[in-house]
Design goal:
Elements lengths: L3 E4 L1 H9 L2 H12 L6 E3 L6 E6 L2 E8 L4 E9 H4 L3
Parallel strand pairs: 1-5
Antiparallel strand pairs: 2-3, 3-4, 4-5
């Protein structure tokens, strides 16, 4: 099952600031979702995290609409602060 991927505006803005190699690694990992180093976040019903090196991608998955929403992309130390 192939999911549609929707990025939040802040995520695209953050991705553009990163160097090219890191951008490619993160985008390739996101395109592989829901596979990869994915764990469910505690306390949130539909939120998951994808690990890409030192970066974390927080996303939610909607199986009904076959949609993955990328909520936040940030280094490991910053991503869980909301």
């Amino acid at each position: 099952m192939k999911y549609k991927i929707r990025y939040e505006k802040d995520c695209l803005k953050y991705l553009k600031k990163l160097d090219r190699n890191t951008q490619v690694r993160i985008i390739n990992a996101i395109n592989q979702l829901p596979f990869g180093d994915v764990k469910k976040l505690q306390g949130n019903i539909d939120d998951y995290r994808l690990r890409v090196g030192n970066y974390r991608v927080v996303f939610s998955k909607d199986d009904e609409n076959i949609l993955i929403s990328i909520i936040k992309i940030a280094p490991r130390g910053e991503v869980y602060k909301r």
